Amino acid sequence: MKRLPFLLAAAGLALLAGCSRSGVVDQTAATTAPNTAGAKSSVPARIAYGERVNLRDWLVPGKTTIFDFTSQGCPPCRAIAPRLHQLHAERSDVAVVEVDLNRPGVRGIDWHSPVAQQFGLESIPHFKIYGPDGKLRAEGDEAYGIVVGMIEGR
After folding, report:
1. Reduced to 3 states, what is the DSSP secondary structure of residue 127?
2. Looking at the predicted structure, is the pLDDT value of residue 5 above 50?
């Protein structure tokens, strides 16, 4: 437990840095197949793979749904992912859905992917939070603050 504050601080610094169009890191895109909607699994669903997506199709009724726009080519995204997975697994009222910006085979962060263009993304990680009623509650910096608060148990 003594390492937890250090890990949270490291993840916080990584998130503050974020990944923007000017800070592309060369990495191979993820190849994990997306999970199916429905019963909550122990790991978040990973959707889009660079293609346009209707977020409403992935809302989990009765739960706060956090959409995490991410890429394997983004170090801050990779840093926060384990904490988001833990939040998803431990909180029965929260579902995390990872929206992968990268199309298969694209290296780095796929800023030109259809899903990145659809949501006008300029930096990641980027979050959208929908309430249990399916209404958008927060996105961007406001959503980031809420997600950090949930991770820290506030």
Report:
1. strand
2. no
- Cα-Cα end-to-end distance for the chain: 17
Residue extents of the structural domains in the chain: 3-151
CA distances from 144 to 42, 57, 81, 118 (A): 22, 22, 13, 20
Instruction: Give 70: exposed, middle or buried? Use CB within 10 Å, 0-12, 13-18, 19+.
Output: buried
The model's pTM: 0.78
In tens, the pLDDT along 40-88 reads: 678 899 999 999 999 999 999 999 999 999 999 999 999 999 999 999 9
User: Which CATH number applies to 3-151: 3.40.30.10, 3.30.40.10, 3.30.70.1560, 3.40.50.720?
Assistant: 3.40.30.10
